[in-house]
Amino acid sequence: MNVILKKLTPFVKRGALFTKQFVHRKPCLMPKRWNGGQIDSYFFVDEERDLNNPDYSEISNEYLGTIAKGHRVLVIQPYIKWGKDKKKDTTRELQLAEAVALVQTLPYWTVVEKLWAPLLSLDRKQFFGKGTLTKIKSLLDSQCNITAVFISVNTLKHEQLLELQKIFKLPVYDRYSLVIHIFRSHAKSPEAKLQVALAELPYIYEKMSEINGQINLLEKRRLFLQSREGQLRNALQKLKTHRESVRTKRKKYGFATVAIVGYTNAGKTSLIKALTGDKKLTPKNYLFATLDTTAHQGVLPSTMKVLYIDTIGFIQDVPETLIEPFVATLEDAMVADIIVHVYDVSHPDCKAQIEHVRKTLKSLSDANKPTIEVANKCDLIEPGNLPKDALGISATETTGIDILRHEIERLILSETGRSIMKMRVESGSEAFAWLYKEATVISAEPDPKNLQFMLLNVIVTDDLLHRFRRFLKSL
């Protein structure tokens, strides 16, 4: 049981915000055989109007800010000058670059100015020192076209947020609230919207807990939010149950699964497109392009079919509570047979991103889960700059993809109890047809001693052998 799953305890165990369940699930039969391409992750149908409750929107907008159609943003990257809180695995330049990329991910949001701001502590009421505040205020006064300020810190205290908005006379966002807006913008399926709705609540609860006064209003809001959370977590549990059912059916049909994980915008979807040849996949070059966990069928060199699981990307400096609701679907990846960790080898902050993903995987899954690390975008660096022993690929140019397929196959065979067995079967017989239908036949050639028989190299599991023997007895 992983660390985050242990923390998935609801704030409330009952409550009825809505008069009926906000998402309903229609019966849906899984296909007997998936025949390639993308496989729908979920089989829920939407009742999205309940997610867009106007009473909740009023509260959400107060604490998270409204998602404007566009903003012209001043990006501020705070940094601790010294002490235990100073970051040592990255630089302020790289942190600022990621902060800018986050803002640019939102449609019609543009970065007008950007700067670093030194801090001695994260606990000041006005967050910044007087000199820094004066510098920022002067910049805002001279740049009247700036409409919002993004402070690239995990979360601001509510008191700090109100104080800064009062000083700047503009909306102020921290990383948590900005990432929530990105999630809102990118969430298309009812399941993604459900998980985003849950991800918002810890932030709002924290902000409410920091407010003094207005006890009656706060208590009414807290009860309202607890009731909403109870409904959302109930729906999330149904989603988890559904995902478990899907995984059981995949296992029944003998699919090996490969989770593709990595830092956001490392090229996970592009890699799956290269591995599967699925032209319908349209990778996007921005952060958090993927919020849904989806499965895509591919074929390994032996002709064995495999499912590649695409996942939400990881990112530094956001609270665990922001990703926690996505565990229901991330679990699909964490119980896969093997993991492929893809990283952007051309990114200046590559080492820090790799380490962050490794730590996240350790908290989410079995530390001994077999993993292949893949250096993507190797076409964007000089050949001599590829790290030693790295498996370099380019998902867009398909460089190294065949080597990766062979490595995936080798690891799957060794980790899943599959083996290659030679079988002598009469050509055109029922046993011959059964093996081609139920197993993976790598090769077939006539038996030189008796041309009525074929020599087959077959990938088998203990379960498949058991079923094959039962089938032979039934003939």
TrEMBL record:
This is Hflx-type G domain-containing protein. Keywords: GTP-binding, Magnesium, Metal-binding, Nucleotide-binding. Residues 256-416 form the Hflx-type G domain. InterPro entries: G_HFLX_dom, GTP-bd, GTPase_HflX, GTPase_HflX_N, GTPase_HflX_N_sf, P-loop_NTPase. It comes from the Eukaryota. GO terms for molecular function: GTP binding; metal ion binding. PANTHER family: GTP-BINDING PROTEIN 6-RELATED (PTHR10229:SF0), GTP-BINDING PROTEIN HFLX (PTHR10229).
